[in-house]
Amino acid sequence: VQLVESGGGLVQPGESLRLSCAASGFPFSSYPMTWGRQVPGKGLESVATIYAGGTIEYGDAVKGRFTISRDNAKSMVYLQMNNLTAEDTARYYCAIRGQNYWGKGTMVTVSS
Questions:
Q1: Is 61 within 8 Å of 87 (Cβ atoms)?
Q2: What does residue 86 show for φ and ψ, rounded to 5 degrees?
Q3: Are 76 and 21 contacting, i.e. CB atoms less than 8 angstroms apart?
Q4: Strands 56-58 and 66-71, sheet pairing
Q5: Model pLDDT for residues 53-93, shown as the tens digit of each residue
Q6: What is the pLDDT of residue 40?
Q7: Rounded to whole angstroms, how far apart are CA atoms 108 and 11?
Q8: 27-31, 55-59, 99-103: which range is least confident on average?
Q9: What b-and-e string marks burial along 36-75, b requiring 16 or more CB atoms within 10 Å of the CB?
Q10: Residue 102 and residue 64: Cα distance in Å, rounded?
Q11: CA 100, CA 44: separation in Å to the nearest integer?
Q12: Looking at the DSSP assignment, which residues form a beta bridge with residue 67?
């Protein structure tokens, strides 16, 4: 199993970023995928999950601002993040929900 995140960076408050996760080594379309984030010194926070059937869940902190999507043909999962705030600063990870497989993460920094 390999999960490779990309798309992080430094943005100003109110701006947007799109994170991507390239998955390989497992039947991607059959598994729920999740984005989580972690601030140094704090626990991992679930951001969004998209299930194989298309059901989506969001963490309360990102509802209405973030959108998770997947492309089963490309084995990709995305996280569109709009109206970013400083509180969104974290390292973002892609994972197979319910499995202990995580990518190395991509850093998102929101600062003016």
A1: yes
A2: -60, -30
A3: yes
A4: unpaired
A5: 999 999 999 999 999 999 999 999 999 999 999 999 999 99
A6: 84
A7: 8
A8: 99-103
A9: bbeeeeeeeebbbbbeeeeeeebeeebeeebbbebeeeeb
A10: 25
A11: 13
A12: 80
Q: The tokens of 42 are what? A: 């704090």
Tokens of 36: 């989580």
Distances (CA, A) of 92 to 27, 30, 53, 73, 110: 23, 22, 23, 23, 13
- Mean predicted confidence (pLDDT) in 16-40: 97
d(CA 110, CA 59): 19
pLDDT value for 100: 85
Q: What is the largest CA-CA distance in the chain?
A: 41
